[in-house]
Amino acid sequence: MQEPRIIYMGTPDFAVAPLKLLVESGYNVLSVVTVPDKPAGRGLKIQQSPVKVYAVEKGIPVLQPDKLKSPDFVEAIKQLKPDIAVVVAFRMLPKEIWSIPSLGTFNLHASLLPQYRGAAPINWAIINGESISGVTTFLIDEQIDTGNILLQKEVPILNTDNAGDLHDNLMLAGAPLVVETVNLLFSNRAKPVSQNNLNISNSLKPAPKIFKDTCKIDWTLNIDSVYNLIRGLSPYPTAWSEMEINNGTEKSITSVKIFSTDKEISNHSLKAGTIVTDGKKQLKVACSNGFIAIKNIQLAGKKRLSIDEFLRGTQNLKLIRML
Question: Partner of 273 for a Cys bridge, out of 16, 58, 102, 219, CB 3.0 to 4.6 A?
Answer without folding.
Answer: 219
